[in-house]
Design goal:
50% of the residues lie in helices and 15% in strands. The protein contains 16 helices and eleven strands. Strands 3-4-9-6-8-7 form a six-stranded mixed beta barrel.
């Protein structure tokens, strides 16, 4: 029975081609607008590392000056750490793994003479970063713990940069010149760009490009690689690089990984004990509560999904509702001209339930057609948005979830719009229609 109603629905598309095309287009435009904005919101608010997001924590302590401290005021502390606190956290060894990181940028000189100097951007991290963030490797591996301790001149390249420098070969063991030193390549990443880049939200683009290089934190510090990103210095800084490291300037981001989510409480206790001990040494005089953020809380804290994105999504669904109202009117017009057909079928014994099922199936056919066209329009809109910048390109990727939602939304919208016109069509009185023929 369903297949018969479905075939009647397909035939009805050709009965009033102009009206049918207008309904399909109206529905498709509404679906495309809502799906496009919902896709962007879906990518921006997604969990970038779902299997361990509750086990990765960002610490936040307040190392501001006591002179301008207002306990009752808004929290004005920097969510980054000073070099003193970051290195103390590394040394104390709490959590299953831990890493400190900051953005670096330096000219890179390839071995190939046909290539000019490149501006390489990336991160200075510790070895644990690779395991903590599930960084995929194409060639080689992360550097060793000994390299971490010694600040060895080694680095890991992105897939794109490795291919540009060495071609489609394994470059492990080759060398490049960086920061006036010869760095050995120990690994090459597979294409890797979490959305969002939860590990580098401060002073970086949450949906930006892949990092070109990853190098040991100790090596970057030894070569005096200036931080690229956010930097806050509220107190006097002694001259020179060592003076900067010994200062209370905040410029480093830090992550702990625990074995289970239950490891949060012991980690919080460690933070509280640490700040209490530092306070006895004359540091961290502000007595603001220490905080730990898991990944999703960290995204919320940094407002990765802004109110403007949510507002745009609501407006798009409002536009979809307006399109549904127009579709209702068009379906009423389409079904009203078939009153005589309904009257004859009722006189021949068709029940209202059968008429209702047939007409509702026809609206479903319109919904499927609108879904196909809406999907094409949505993909086109996302492509146009992604052409504006690299950051937008990263959030305009439609996955299978959104692909399925497009058809469900279109089908559901069409069925919803067809309820009133279908119900009105079923109320036709057979006697009046036969008398008028």
């Amino acid at each position: 029975m369903f297949s018969y109603c479905f075939m009647l629905g397909v035939r009805s598309l050709r009965r009033n081609p102009g009206l049918t095309a207008l309904m399909v287009l109206t529905l498709a435009v509404g679906v495309a607008a809502s799906v496009s904005t919902l896709t962007i919101l879906h990518v921006m608010s997604g969990n970038p590392i779902p299997h361990k997001s509750e086990r990765l924590f960002v610490p936040k302590i307040d190392n501001g000056t006591i002179e301008d401290f207002n306990p009752q005021g808004e929290d004005d502390s920097d969510p980054q750490l000073s070099y003193i606190d970051a290195t103390n956290f590394l040394r104390d060894g709490h959590g299953e793994r831990r890493t400190v990181l900051y953005g670096v940028s330096a000219p890179l000189e390839p071995e190939r003479k046909d290539l000019s100097v490149l501006a390489a951007k990336g991160l200075a991290v510790t070895r644990d970063f690779f395991a903590m963030m599930d960084v995929p490797m194409r060639y080689g591996q992360a550097w060793s713990e000994a390299d971490d301790r010694a600040g060895a001149d080694v680095l890991v390249l992105s897939a794109a940069l490795a291919e540009k420098l060495f071609g489609a070969v394994d470059p492990v063991g080759k060398r490049v010149r960086l920061m006036d030193a010869q760095f050995q390549v120990v690994g090459v990443l597979k294409p890797w760009l979490p959305a969002p880049k939860f590990y580098k939200l401060i002073g970086g683009a949450g949906f930006g490009e892949e990092d070109d290089i990853l190098l040991p934190f100790a090596s970057a510090v030894r070569h005096k690689a200036s931080p690229q990103g956010s930097l806050s210095c509220r107190q006097r800084v002694e001259p020179g690089w060592q003076g900067f490291l010994d200062s209370e300037c905040t410029w480093l981001q830090f992550f702990f990984e625990t074995k289970t989510a239950a490891g949060r409480a012991p980690l919080q206790d460690y933070l509280d004990n640490y700040t209490a001990a530092q306070r006895k040494l004359g540091r961290l005089q502000r007595k603001r509560p220490n905080q730990l953020f898991d990944v999703m809380q960290w995204l919320e804290f940094n407002k990765v999904v802004g109110n403007d994105s949510r507002l745009a999504t609501w407006l798009a669904f409002g536009f979809l509702l307006l399109c549904l109202v127009n579709t209702v009117g068009l379906l009423l017009a389409k079904f009203s001209v078939r009153a005589s057909e309904v009257g004859i079928r009722r006189a021949l014994g068709a029940s209202r339930k059968e008429i209702f099922r047939q007409f509702l199936t026809e609206t479903a056919v319109i919904g499927l057609a609108g879904g196909v066209l809406g999907l094409g329009l949505a993909l086109g809109a996302l492509a146009l948005i992604g052409m504006q910048s690299q950051e937008l390109r990263a959030v305009t990727r439609m996955d299978w979830q959104m692909l399925g939602l497009t058809f469900l939304m279109s089908l559901g919208a069409a069925m919803l719009a067809g309820l009133l016109p279908t119900w009105r069509a079923c109320q036709v009185t057979p006697a009046l229609q036969l008398k008028s023929q």
